[in-house]
Amino acid sequence: MSISDNYLDADSAVYKTLLESTKAIPWKINWSTLQFSYIGPQIEALLGWSPDSWLTVEDWASRMHPDDRAWVVDFCVAQSKAGTDHEADYRALTKDGQYIWIRDVVHVVRKENGEVDSLIGFMFDITERKDTEQKLIELQKQLEELSFKDGLTGVFNRRMFDSVMEVEWANAKRNRQPLSLIMLDIDYFKQYNDYYGHIQGDECLRRVANVLACVATRSRDFFARYGGEEFILVLPETDEAAAFKIAERCRNMIFKAQIPHEKSLVSQLLTISIGISTITPTRNDEAIKFIATVDKQLYVAKEKGRNSIA
């Protein structure tokens, strides 16, 4: 053996030591046989499977989460055939039956004639990163939900109402279906706040919101706090008669709640006034004008003496 051969062997040993001392797990697959010619010993510490149990790509694929397997295998095979370096994230099965996230970074080695010779890559444990990403996604979802929820009552807010109204208005116009709105206002709420105090007033708003939210029973029925002591119900595909029955149910449910209101001028219990309107919108109609109509009906209900429906 020549001196140069000794240096090559020494270099190989150094490279192998370096590769096997990193957290990244090196591997190599012979493309013609689809067999592992090498996989780093770190694989056993990470997944529990010994290096000698990684014989073919079938061992790699079978130790992948069923939901990830098909697309990852198809993607990696297609990229390898095309001679394109690539990477893929997937959940790998540990020997004790758990799953951890792996990122495989793959380099395609070609022969002189251009054919694929082998695949060389590194596996990285990205479980912690994926957990962080998932927590951030959940946090973002919570923030989005909060932005559409009323901070006091927990029901949807005016911003969400605007979004839902836009969608349901378009649906009603396109499908030529009736759309009903019910606007509700707590009678003499200022007097309630002045007499019972703002803390009790806030609790009153929460109770009213919880009661009225139960009225929206169908999947597309929508209930929100419109502002102050006003609430609103959006009722898709609901005609005037059906909307009136729902409004009556709202009034009865508030009565059954038996919330005292000694300073009300219409009852010793808390009551609500309700405005209703129904429309099958055409291209000449505008949602903002329809909402204004409902608001006018609420005003009419108050003019009638409150604790009424108009």
Describe the structure.
By secondary structure, this protein is α+β, with helices and mostly antiparallel strands. It has helices at 3-20, 42-47, 57-62, 66-81, 127-147, 158-175, 189-196, 198-213, 240-257, 287-303; strands at residues 25-30, 35-39, 86-93, 99-110, 116-125, 179-186, 222-227, 230-236, 272-279. A 5-stranded antiparallel β-sheet has the order 2-1-5-4-3, with helices on both faces. Strands 7-8-6-9 form a 4-stranded antiparallel β-sheet, sandwiched between helices. β1 and β2 (35-39) form a beta hairpin. α7 (189-196) crosses α8 and α8 packs across α9 (240-257). The longest helix has 21 residues, at 127-147. The chain starts with a helix and ends in a 7-residue tail after the last helix. The model is unreliable at 1-8 (pLDDT under 50).
Brief synopsis:
By secondary structure, the chain is of the alpha+beta class.
Biggest sheet strand line-up: 2-1-5-4-3
Summing up helix and strand content along with how strands pair, one would put the structural category as: alpha+beta
Helix content: 40-55%
Largest sheet: 5 strands, antiparallel
Low confidence ranges? 1-8
Radius of gyration: 33 Å
Number of strands: 9
Cα(first) to Cα(last) distance is 103 Å
Total count of helical runs of at least 4 residues: 10
How large is the share of residues in beta strands? 15-25%
Report the principal-axis shape.
elongated
Secondary-structure element series:
HEEHHHEEEHHEHHEEHEH
The overall average pLDDT, rounded, is 90
